C-alpha cells in the first residue's frame, strides 16, 4: 500500500466503493486522513464497513469542511451529467480528484525522482503497459505495475526513489488527475470512445492530452490526426518528444516498417526488433505498441540489449492473442478480449491464412460486415451464442461455417478440423462480440476456451511446445 500522507489530518470525502475506491480509502486512512466514504449501493457501503473503512452518508453531509472529494473513476464527472457528489463538492468549492492524482502528489512529496511511466490511448494500453513493465523487470528494475490494468495504484508498494511505477491510465482517471506529471507519458492513439463521458471527440482528446502536458518526456503515436496534432503542439512548445509511427519514418522518433521496429541511433537506422517470429506480438497494432515501449524504456535509460531481451521474452496478456496450446501443426489462440469487430480485425490481420475461427456471443452494432476483407483467410468459421444466426447470414456462401451454439461444441470441432487438414493452421477464438449471453465477462469466456482446448487429446500447453 502507498499511504497518502499529503492529506494527513484533513477531512476527505470519498465516493465509490468498488475495488479502487476501497484501496484508496485504506491508503488515505493509513496516511492519516479523516475519511468519510460512501456509495449509492448500500451493499458496497456495508461491505466497506465490514472491512474497517469509515463510512458516512454523503447525501446529507456538509461538504464545506472537506479538503476534497476523491471520486472513483467510474463515476461521472462531467457527462452525461455530473454525479450528485460532484455537484455538492463544486457547490462547496472543493476540488474533485482521483487515486492517480493522490499518487502523483505523494510521489512529489516522498520521492519525486522515482521513475513514473504512464500509458494511455484508445487501443493497446494494456499490452503496452504490461510490455514496458516486463522489459524493465527483465533488466533488473524494481517495478510496480498498476492503474487501469487491474491493480489499484494505491495498492502498490510504497514509493521509493529506486522503484519504477508503470501505470495504465484511462481517460476517466486522467480527468481526475489535474497535476499528473510522469517521467514518461505514452499516448498510443486516439479514436472515438467513451464520448458519453467526455461529450465529444474534442473533449475526449483534451483529457488524453493532459497526461502529456506534465510529462518530462512524451511518447506519442502520430498515425491518427488527433494524436498527431497533440504531438505538434508538444513540439511547438519545445518540450521533449518521441514520435512513434507504423506508417514510416518520423522525426525524432521510432517507427515500424512492417514487423520491424526501427530506431535512429547516430546516423544509422537500427532495427531494434523483428516481430515476425514473436509468439504474441504480431500485427501492425502490436508494432505500434512495441515502438512505444521501446521509446518509453529507452527514456528511462534501458540499454539496447536489455530492450531486445525484454521484448522477445514477453509472454503476452491473457485473452489478447494469447497462444494457449499446440497440436501438430496447429496453434490455438485465445483472443477472447476481442469483443467487437475492430478488435477481431487485429487478430485476423495477424495470421496469414488457414484460420479456424470461433466467433459469436452477444452481438455489437455493425456485426462482422467490416471484417469481410479478412474472409479469404478463414478456412472455416464456428458460430456460437446469440449472434450465430446473423453471422451465418453475413458469411453466407463465402466462408464455410458450422453453427455450434456453445464454446463446448465449437472448440473440439475447430481443433479436429484444423488437425485433419494437415498443414499449418490457427484455431482462433476472436468472438467480435460481448460475452454476456453465455459468460459473465470475456475473461471467464477466455478461461473456458483455454480449458476446453487443453482438454482435447493431443493438445499441449503452448509454452511446453514453443
Automatic annotation (TrEMBL):
<dbReference type="Pfam" id="PF02875">
    <property type="entry name" value="Mur_ligase_C"/>
</dbReference>
<feature type="domain" description="Mur ligase central">
    <location>
        <begin position="119"/>
        <end position="296"/>
    </location>
</feature>
<feature type="domain" description="Mur ligase C-terminal">
    <location>
        <begin position="319"/>
        <end position="433"/>
    </location>
</feature>
<keyword id="KW-0133">Cell shape</keyword>
<keyword id="KW-0067">ATP-binding</keyword>
<keyword id="KW-0573">Peptidoglycan synthesis</keyword>
<dbReference type="GO" id="GO:0008360">
    <property type="term" value="P:regulation of cell shape"/>
</dbReference>
<keyword id="KW-0131">Cell cycle</keyword>
<dbReference type="Pfam" id="PF08245">
    <property type="entry name" value="Mur_ligase_M"/>
</dbReference>
<dbReference type="InterPro" id="IPR036615">
    <property type="entry name" value="Mur_ligase_C_dom_sf"/>
</dbReference>
<dbReference type="GO" id="GO:0009252">
    <property type="term" value="P:peptidoglycan biosynthetic process"/>
</dbReference>
<feature type="binding site">
    <location>
        <begin position="121"/>
        <end position="127"/>
    </location>
    <ligand>
        <name>ATP</name>
    </ligand>
</feature>
<keyword id="KW-0132">Cell division</keyword>
<dbReference type="InterPro" id="IPR036565">
    <property type="entry name" value="Mur-like_cat_sf"/>
</dbReference>
<dbReference type="InterPro" id="IPR013221">
    <property type="entry name" value="Mur_ligase_cen"/>
</dbReference>
<comment type="pathway">
    <text>Cell wall biogenesis; peptidoglycan biosynthesis.</text>
</comment>
<dbReference type="Pfam" id="PF21799">
    <property type="entry name" value="MurD-like_N"/>
</dbReference>
<keyword id="KW-0961">Cell wall biogenesis/degradation</keyword>
<keyword id="KW-0963">Cytoplasm</keyword>
<dbReference type="InterPro" id="IPR005762">
    <property type="entry name" value="MurD"/>
</dbReference>
<dbReference type="GO" id="GO:0005524">
    <property type="term" value="F:ATP binding"/>
</dbReference>
<keyword id="KW-0547">Nucleotide-binding</keyword>
<comment type="similarity">
    <text>Belongs to the MurCDEF family.</text>
</comment>
<dbReference type="GO" id="GO:0005737">
    <property type="term" value="C:cytoplasm"/>
</dbReference>
<dbReference type="GO" id="GO:0071555">
    <property type="term" value="P:cell wall organization"/>
</dbReference>
<comment type="function">
    <text>Cell wall formation. Catalyzes the addition of glutamate to the nucleotide precursor UDP-N-acetylmuramoyl-L-alanine (UMA).</text>
</comment>
<dbReference type="InterPro" id="IPR018109">
    <property type="entry name" value="Folylpolyglutamate_synth_CS"/>
</dbReference>
<dbReference type="GO" id="GO:0008764">
    <property type="term" value="F:UDP-N-acetylmuramoylalanine-D-glutamate ligase activity"/>
</dbReference>
<protein>
    <recommendedName>
        <fullName>UDP-N-acetylmuramoylalanine--D-glutamate ligase</fullName>
        <ecNumber>6.3.2.9</ecNumber>
    </recommendedName>
</protein>
<dbReference type="GO" id="GO:0051301">
    <property type="term" value="P:cell division"/>
</dbReference>
<dbReference type="InterPro" id="IPR004101">
    <property type="entry name" value="Mur_ligase_C"/>
</dbReference>
<keyword id="KW-0436">Ligase</keyword>
<dbReference type="GO" id="GO:0004326">
    <property type="term" value="F:tetrahydrofolylpolyglutamate synthase activity"/>
</dbReference>
Amino acid at each position: 500500500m502507498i499511504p497518502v500522507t499529503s492529506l494527513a489530518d484533513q477531512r476527505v470525502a470519498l465516493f465509490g466503493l468498488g475495488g479502487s475506491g476501497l484501496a484508496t480509502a485504506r491508503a488515505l486512512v493509513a496516511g492519516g486522513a479523516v475519511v468519510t466514504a460512501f456509495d449509492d449501493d448500500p451493499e458496497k457501503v456495508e461491505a466497506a464497513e465490514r472491512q474497517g473503512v469509515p463510512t458516512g452518508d454523503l447525501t446529507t453531509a456538509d461538504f464545506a469542511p472537506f479538503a476534497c472529494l476523491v471520486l472513483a473513476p467510474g463515476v461521472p464527472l462531467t457527462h452525461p451529467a455530473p454525479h450528485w457528489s460532484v455537484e455538492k463538492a463544486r457547490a462547496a468549492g472543493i476540488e474533485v480528484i482521483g487515486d492517480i492524482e493522490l499518487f502523483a502528489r505523494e510521489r512529489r512529496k516522498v520521492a519525486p525522482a522515482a521513475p513514473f511511466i504512464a500509458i494511455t490511448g484508445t487501443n493497446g494500453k494494456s499490452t503496452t503497459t504490461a510490455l514496458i513493465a516486463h522489459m524493465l523487470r527483465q533488466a533488473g528494475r524494481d517495478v510496480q505495475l498498476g492503474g487501469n490494468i487491474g491493480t489499484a495504484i494505491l495498492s502498490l508498494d510504497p514509493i521509493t526513489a529506486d522503484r519504477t511505477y508503470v501505470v495504465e491510465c484511462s481517460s476517466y482517471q486522467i480527468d481526475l488527475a489535474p497535476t499528473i506529471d510522469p517521467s514518461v507519458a505514452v499516448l498510443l492513439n486516439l479514436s472515438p470512445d467513451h464520448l458519453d463521458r467526455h461529450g465529444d471527440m474534442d473533449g475526449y482528446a483534451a483529457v488524453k492530452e493532459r497526461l502529456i502536458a506534465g510529462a518530462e518526456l512524451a511518447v506519442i503515436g502520430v498515425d491518427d490526426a488527433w494524436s498527431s496534432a497533440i504531438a505538434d503542439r508538444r513540439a511547438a512548445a519545445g518540450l521533449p518528444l518521441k514520435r512513434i509511427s507504423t506508417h514510416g519514418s518520423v522525426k525524432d522518433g521510432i517507427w515500424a516498417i512492417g514487423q520491424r521496429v526501427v530506431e535512429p541511433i547516430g546516423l544509422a537506422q537500427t532495427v531494434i526488433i523483428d516481430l515476425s517470429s514473436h509468439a504474441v506480438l504480431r500485427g501492425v497494432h502490436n508494432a505500434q505498441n512495441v515502438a512505444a515501449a521501446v521509446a518509453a524504456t529507452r527514456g528511462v535509460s534501458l540499454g539496447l540489449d536489455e530492450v531486445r531481451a525484454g521484448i522477445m521474452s514477453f509472454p503476452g496478456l491473457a485473452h489478447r492473442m494469447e497462444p494457449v496450446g499446440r497440436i501438430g501443426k496447429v496453434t490455438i489462440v485465445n483472443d477472447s478480449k476481442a469483443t467487437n469487430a475492430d478488435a477481431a480485425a487485429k487478430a485476423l490481420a495477424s495470421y496469414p491464412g488457414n484460420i479456424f475461427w470461433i466467433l459469436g456471443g452477444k452481438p455489437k452494432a455493425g456485426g462482422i460486415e467490416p471484417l469481410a476483407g479478412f474472409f479469404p483467410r478463414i478456412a472455416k468459421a464456428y458460430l456460437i451464442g446469440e449472434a450465430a444466426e446473423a453471422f451465418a447470414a453475413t458469411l453466407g456462401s463465402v466462408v464455410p461455417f458450422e453453427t455450434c451454439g456453445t464454446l463446448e461444441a465449437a472448440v473440439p470441432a475447430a481443433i479436429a478440423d484444423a488437425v485433419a487438414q494437415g498443414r499449418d493452421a490457427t484455431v482462433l477464438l476472436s468472438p467480435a462480440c460481448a460475452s454476456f449471453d453465455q459468460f459473465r465477462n470475456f475473461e471467464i469466456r477466455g478461461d473456458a476456451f483455454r480449458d476446453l482446448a487443453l482438454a482435447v487429446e493431443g493438445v499441449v500447453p503452448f509454452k511446453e511446445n514453443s
